[in-house]
Structures are given as structure tokens and as C-alpha cells.
Amino acid sequence: MIRFIRNAAVVAGFFLLFDIPWLLAMAGMYRGWIGPLMAEDTSLGYAVVFYLAYSAAACWLAVRPALERGSLREAAISGAVLGFAAYGTYGFTNAATLRDWPAQMLLIDTIWGTFLTAGICAAAYATIRRIDRRTGRKAGISR
User: Fold this and answer.
1) CA-CA distance, 37 to 18, in Å (whole number)?
2) CA 126 from centroid of its chain's CA atoms
């Protein structure tokens, strides 16, 4: 369990490293598209819950199995599938239920989430393998 938490923390670190700058860079565009729907202040509590849960899910569904099989490619592909499912669910649900949800935002967010999660799962896989080699542990096994 401790190794899983460590591995999920590696995944979360990569999300902070790449997704937060993306969101800050895209904030103006998002505000132009959905400004009236946006809160004046970001609720960091909800964001923390999302990133912790999503990082744990990415670790469990993509990174952990890839570590057990020794496959960087599997980490990336499984991450891409998860990213498409998660970010696509958000975008397509909003497009289906909210008036005037921008198709550009749906497309950009879904593509971003797909490639972001694929890249993060691959980077986390490589990082965790390196850590495990240095500590002499077999990768991916939760002992």
C-alpha cells in the first residue's frame, strides 16, 4: 500500500507539473468561451480531490499494470484510454447538458486530457522504474 501511495504521488506530481501551467495558460480562452459559467474564485478543495482521485486511478489502471508487465508502451496507451474517457466524459457531458458549450473547448480538452494522461503515465512509469532500480525492488509489486 505504501508503494502504491508513493507511485500515485509520482503521478500527481507530474499532473501538477504539466496540467496547472496548461490551465493557467488557457484561463483567458476558457473565460472567453464559458465566462458566465465560471466561478469568480477557484475552489481548490474540489481541484485537490480531483487530482488525488485521478492520479490514484491513473496509477491503478495504467501505471501499476504496466510496471508489472515491464511495458512503457502499455503505460502510455492505458493512460491515453483513461485520459480520453475522463476528459471526454467531462466535455461531452457538458456539451450535452449545458447551453452553448463550445465545441472547440470540448475538442481541445479531450485531446489535451488524452495526451496529458498518456504522457504522465509513461513518465511516471519511467520514474518509478528508476526509483525501484535504485532501491533494488522489483517494479510494480506492492510489497
Assistant:
1) 24
2) 16
